[in-house]
Amino acid sequence: MRTSFALASFGLSLLLGNVASAQVTDADLAAAASDNSQWLSYGRDQGETRYSPLRQINDGNISDLGVAWTFDTGSFRGLEATPLVANGIMYATRPWSSVFAVNARTGALIWDYDPQVDRAQGYRACCDVVNRGVALYDDKVYVGTIDGRLIALNAQTGAVEWEVLTVDRSRPYTITGAPRIADGKVIIGNGGAELGARGYITAYDAMTGEEEWRFWVVPGNPADGFENPDVEFAATTWDGNWWEVGGGGNAWDSMIYDEEERLVYVGTGNGSPWSHEIRSNGVGDNLYLSSIVALHVDTGRVAWYYQTTPGDNWDYTAVQPLMLADIAINGVLRKVIMQAPKNGFFYVLDRVTGDLIYADPYAELNWATGVDLETGRPIETPHARYDTSVTMIMPGPSGAHNWHPMSYNPNTGLVYIPTLQGSVFPYAIMDEFQFVPEAWNLGIKFGTLEGEPVTPEFEYVGSTGPATRSPGALLAWDPVTRRPRWYHDYDFTINGGTLSTGGNLVFQGGADGVFRAFAADDGELLFEADLGVGIMAAPMTYELDGTQYVSVLAGWGGSSGLFGPNYDGAYKPQGRLWTFQLSGTEIVPVEGQPLPDLTAIPFDESPARLAEGADKYIQNCGLCHGADGASGGAIADLRYASEATYDNFHSIVREGAYTALGMPNLSATVSASDLDTIKNWILSQRAALMAQ
To answer: What backbone torsions phi and psi does residue 652 show, to the nearest 5 degrees?
Structure first.
């Protein structure tokens, strides 16, 4: 029994009250941009602009915003979903792919569904076992699960209508993104490139779950034949035996549908391994990696493609949110598709033909000086194709913008982008690469740097301001003038998705736990509320009974309340769904527990042993627990572990004691002696923390 019902069916009608039957039609989705009362899909409208015309809450009264209701999610891990609202019911997801429905007027729980995923497979998730939301269609709620299923639930009761396994479980696939609806089909992608997966997206009949078509992002083994001419063409841009590792390209987030053109647009992922030299002998563009691909909705065949980063060498995915809009370019109204992917350039393309209109740097970068508008190719700097010596490249794999949704306001003509400024990473090709199943296979060196890294002189050619900015910023970008209108700097790197409204407002949460509202036209900070826990998810808004509400999921934490400090140095409280309205109640943040007093634990201080421990830690632990031993907020900060936890490192790391929390059994890649050196280095980081 996979379904977990929070309420008995006989009490459901009482709880629903005046909530109507949840039916979402094709006409509803097509008209979503003008429907103020609801939020029917991931980006609100089919263009995923995340703009609402609602203006009851506006730049003149935002200071009166208070709490309408809250809902405690019970989760201490990261919350990344955008809630949807249809017919008075709000739907959202938690980590481990669970779904809940609440009354959008009161926050009262209607039903709660747990897909009971195999948590021992949680390590396959690149960046924690998060989920970004559901899709709605007819009387169903669709969710992708971390273990690779697509499930259709009854919107009223949460009962399973159908489910289908979308992946080969012998390969390290995961699903964290929200499904999308297009022409009666539900479309879902997957992740797993770093561990050795071959990316694709699949369209299923929304009523039955039967597969309609599948688009393979990269070619497989030519000896097995090609699925269609699109894949056969892509194979001409590859070299070597790329299929042995998988190739990558996983489309784990961005999908969008243009009903008029009958095209599904997909943003594709990075190469696997990261190193182009190892993956493809340094040869070819490696289609369709790091690309925007337009697919015919009936067949899944390629209509056009544009590759943002040919021969990807840096984990520069193009999976970041795509957005459709009609914009006047040089006085001519154009149907465009816009994206701000990891590589630091903002792209404006004709969404009918795929022709590049503009590409401009919106953040700091040193891997390219611009994009040639004739060829559409980036103009790479001489050092961009790093070799075995360490080269500092900007941006790094975190990108200048990641999955956090941007929004577009047609009144101001601006796109509001959560950016990361100054992201730098030491790239170097691994001396001897050997594929290890179920492990991260990046083809680049990690650990301590031998000698001085190559740091190329940074020559910035963009227009977003000085070349050295704060770590993170909210950037208001004008896609017509190709310049920033304004930006708001943060003293932290990660900041949440954005929402813009007809009230001349832009809403955004941050890693510091503060929920903010800015004037959409000039960027004036108008409102701040400390919610007590980091906010990565994008806000949304809706209207019921003449009242406008704004909702956001706040929760940026580890696998339990006893793991890891939040941004402000306190143990993380559980995540909460906050809903605001004018003249609501006082905003009182959730509180975490204070950090424990750390006790000194002896360790071997010899430089050679510490260097070895740092190297082994980075290779095996750093991508989840933080490169310098300090958790980024999603997974346990190991410096704060108890002495008992250190004593049990062997059972945790090499025997799978914490698999239920998503901690993998690393016995295949971490030997007992490796683990000793790793623990010794972590203890040195604990000592350094105590000395601060």
So the answer is: -75, -45
Query: Using CA atoms in the order 689, 592, 123, 135, what is the torsion angle rounded to 10 degrees?
Result: -140
Angle at 540 between CA 56 and CA 141, to 5 degrees: 130
Element (H, E) at 163: strand 160-165
Domain boundaries, the chain: 1-30+81-165, 607-691
* C-alpha distances in Å from residue 86, one per residue of 44, 53, 89, 320, 636: 11, 17, 5, 26, 36
Pick the CATH number of 1-30+81-165 from 3.40.1550.10, 1.20.1290.10, 2.40.10.480, 3.40.630.30: 2.40.10.480
In this structure, what are the phi and psi dihedrals at residue 614, rounded to the nearest 5 degrees? -65, -40
Q: Which residues are catalytic?
A: 315
Query: Which residues does the chain have with pLDDT short of 70?
Result: 1-22, 122-123, 446-470, 557-572, 592-595, 623, 626-635, 662
Q: Which SS3 state, helix, strand or coil, does residue 26 take?
A: helix
Q: Does domain 607-691 have CATH number 1.10.760.10?
A: yes
The pLDDT assigned to 1 comes to 31
Q: What is the pTM of this model?
A: 0.91
512-530: per-residue pLDDT in tens? Answer: 899 999 999 999 999 999 9
Q: Are 204 and 211 in contact (CB under 8 A)?
A: yes
Nearest CA to 509 among 537, 488, 550? 537
Structure tokens at 299: 């067949």
